Amino acid sequence: MSFWDRISRLDRRWIYLLVWLTVITPLFLPATFPISVTPEARQLYDAVQALPDSCVVLLTFDTYPNALAETEPMARAALHHLFRKHIRVVTLTTIPLGGPSIAERVTRELAATYRKTYGVDFVNLGYKPNYVSVLKGLGTSIESIYPTDNSGTPLAQLPLMQNVKSYSDMKFIFVVTDNGIIDYWISIVNAQFKIPVGAGVTAVMAPKQYAYVGSGQMTGLLGGMKGAAEYEELVDKHALATRGMGIQSLIHILLIVLIGIGNLAYFMGRRKRGAA
Amino acid sequence: MRTTVPVAIAFVSGIIMLVSFFFRTEDNVFGDASQQLLIWSSIIGGFSFLLGAISIVRVNWRNVRLKKSGWGYNLLTVLAVFAMLVPALIKKGWLPESMAHLAGRDAGSIYDWIFIYVATPMSQTMFAVLAFYIASAAYRAFRARSAEATLLLITASLVMLWRVPMGEALLNSIHPGLPGWINTYVMSGINLSVQRGILLGAALGAASFSLRILLGIERTYMGRG
Q: How far is the C-alpha of A72 from the C-alpha of A69, rounded, in Å?
């Protein structure tokens, strides 16, 4: 077997080892990189920045726990921005597996930092089944879909919800998601109720969302951990996503190098077989 | 009768939702009816979770009883269902005050603890393992075998570099305008137009499928053709 054939048939465990080393190295040798901001992330930031102080924004935690590495930093950066502007935040989720817990944990942690009071400055509506019905129903009456908040407190007892009856009482929707629910936030909520929707989505979902940004149906976009790092840069709160950029940079470069070596071995092996 | 009634329900419900979507119906009978339908739909969705939970327990418990191959995993599944379900259903008032925080789904409850320290790390681990498989698969399968594959390979490599700071610095060193060019022409140009075409095609397909359901032509949702 020639050298290039051996390279071409490299045991996958060597590749796994390389990936593992690439992931753990930045943990011991942390390095920071300048984060450039894409026009889509800037558009989202500018839209939130332009909102009047003390208005109400809906922040959704439509994310499963497996994608938290990408989505949680987005939600945290968004909350920094919203709470700093004294914007009141209503959160909800369309994900039953942990969605309410994630929203509760992240929002309460950030709220404590900014000394915000539950029920006055922020409310967690939690989860209700059948997201299409939920998204559409909130446009007419939030209370008919969510009679209580996540902890079972009737909305009538929460001061913030006295003046928030439907989408028309909100100025912006910030969707953080790792799944196709974003299509419904655009096609149902933005299309029918004309409320601006901005989104933070996982990297694998981001390319599709450019169609919505281009058509003006989506006001700004954060794509994956890089998008989260861009928002952290914009709100000047460098945290999880910015730290993750070192690992992601090395992994992307490793993948490109591996693809290059794989192709080189393929062509060299083919040339050798052709010559023989 | 078994076909006509569901088709009639689907038609009437669909028409109400359709009218309420395209016309402002907040203050008339269509608005009220559509809101009621949405509430019913959410409640029915809740019952589907109950059915799912019952089904998963029944199927797995049967395998445990019959000691089928891998029954240990079935037992673990059943135990996991109850481990999450029971603490979440317990009311705070049922427990002594010192233990009340363990009940329900709030922060500090058993349900929340299991979610944060068991469910979340496990699902993230499963997701993270993909990185190893992707690296191995890319090394073996991502070959420039044809012009189309070569184009895909070059584009993917450029976008992968553009999406990370170190790669972006590398692209900048080649030409300062290269990262911006990728965003403008690859992502907001070629990618956007292709994604829009796919979205339009899917939307037209969904619209025609919905129309078939409304008119009773499509009946597979009732378990028959």
A: 6
Could you state, in order of their start, the residue ranges of all structural domains in chain B? 1-85, 142-225
- Chain A partners of B163 at a C-beta cutoff of 8 Å? 203, 223-224, 226, 248, 252
Nearest CB among B160, B168, B199 relative to A36 is that of: B168
What mean pLDDT is predicted for residues B181-198?
A: 93
CA angle B20, B24, B30 (to 5 degrees): 40
Look up the ipTM and state it. 0.86
Q: What does the DSSP 8-state code read for residue A154? A: B
The first and second tokens of residue B101, run together, are 């925080």
> A44: which 2 tokens?
């989202």
Answer yes or no: do B119 and A108 touch at CB < 8 A. Answer: no
Which one of 3.90.1150, 3.40.50, 1.20.120, 1.20.950 gives the CATH number of domain A39-237? 3.40.50
Residue B172 CA neighbour count, 13 Å, CB half = 10
B128 touches B119 (CB < 8 A) = no
- Please state, as a whole number, how many other Cβ atoms lie within 10 Å of the Cβ of residue B170: 17
Residue A41, helix vs strand vs coil: helix
Judged against a pLDDT cut of 70, whether residue B24 lies above it is answered with no
Residue B183, C-beta contacts closer than 8 angstroms, at least 6 positions apart: A38, A39, B162
3-state class of B210 per DSSP? Answer: helix
B-contacting residues in A 232-271 (Cβ below 8 Å) = 245-246, 248-256, 258-259, 261-263, 266-267
Whether residue B225 is predicted with pLDDT greater than 60 in this model: the reply is no
Q: Let me know: does A198 contact A220? Beta carbons within 8 Å.
A: yes
Query: Considering CB atoms only, which of A211, A258, A261 is closest to B199?
Result: A211
Which residue has 């603490």 as its token pair? B87
CB < 8 Å to B41, chain A: 130, 132-133
What count of other Cβ atoms lies within 10 Å of the Cβ of residue B180?
16
A45 half-sphere exposure, CB direction, 13 A CA radius: 20
> What integer is the mean pLDDT of A248-256?
94
Whether residues A208 and B131 touch (CB distance < 8 A) is answered with no
Distance of residue B32 Cα from the nearest chain A Cα, in angstroms: 9
